[in-house]
Fold:
Amino acid sequence: MTKIFQLAEYADELLRTAEIPDYPAALNGLQLENGSDIAGIAAAVDLSTRAIAGAIEAKANLLIVHHGMFWNGLEQLRGPSYRKVRLLLEHDIAVYSSHLPLDLHPQLGNNVLLARELGLKPTGTFAKHDGYFIGLSGESNIETMTLAEIAERFASAYGGSVRLTQVQRHRRTKRWAMCSGAGASSDTLREAVRMGVDTLIVGEGPHHTAVQAEENDVAIIYAGHYATETLGVTALAEHLGQKYEIPTCFIKAPTGL
Structure:
């Protein structure tokens, strides 16, 4: 029999939750406890009504998410916020959330698993944040459009699609960098240019990043915020499930972004 505090303590150590700095609203770790033994673990990208309903249907009383209960910041418990909390409490579902600690984990992280999905071998780091590198980088020799097609097959499995900035036909990706989620920004593009990166792989980014990329001869593959962050929560849930002999599942609740 496994209690939530035992499982959460192990997950915090595994992910270095107390060590890795993050945005205040991430509030990584155990966000909501429960009173019963953990009988099932569900993973989802976002703490949403769809994700909670999926956990209830799967008879899971622990929900692991990437974007947790407080992602929108401090808000009143009314309307959708109240309904989500009520559902969690009525079904005694605990919530554990991990954002940047899960993005950068060397075995269970979104970036290392995304690189594997795309057939890329990381040899370096990328996207430094408060002293820690969130993303990865490496070398390859593949046509950029072919790499985008591989990313498209991956993203489509999660209800998403890929956008590729303007590139010449038969252009090749020789040095790449990656940062899942909202990985395209002026900062990451400047970092990519300094590193000599020719292709940046991210979840999403503002419009201006496509313009900035073209000006610097960097291709950006926008593989979808949601899709690129499905991998870590799934891997973490499976790891905990194997360790504690608890059934696990992934709850699909795609946003299309």
User: Anything to note?
Assistant: The mean pLDDT is 97. The chain has two domains: 4-98+229-250, 103-228.
